[in-house]
Amino acid sequence: AAELRAELRHLGFLxxxxxxxxxxxxxxxxxxxxxxxxxxxxxxxxLVRELEKKFSGKHVMIVGQRRILKAPSxxxxxxxxxxxxxxxxxxxxxxxxxxxxxPNEIVGKRLRVRVDG
Length: 117
Known about the structure:
This protein has about 120 residues and is α+β, with helices and mostly antiparallel strands. Helices cover about 30% and strands about 20% of the residues. The relative contact order is 0.13. The model has no long low-confidence stretch (mean pLDDT about 85).
């Protein structure tokens, strides 16, 4: 615990939210700065274990805070740079999904398309 405390001394988080995942089960989502996400990944297994011990019966997830930029349209096209792929809605949602399942990796995805779009 002492070495974990020393590693966490330089880290901060932006916000924490409690989310209900089923009738009686809750999870805590920690939002951390995107730039510190790789540092959090190094201690995530130990940190999550300690936090789940502290908040008994609740799952703990660490997610990087990311930004979604609007798609360029006629109104907001003129004075902006090209929108990076990492700031699109799809890329941000995929990255959040990666954060939620870390340290596991996603090896396959299924895309479901409905008739009505």
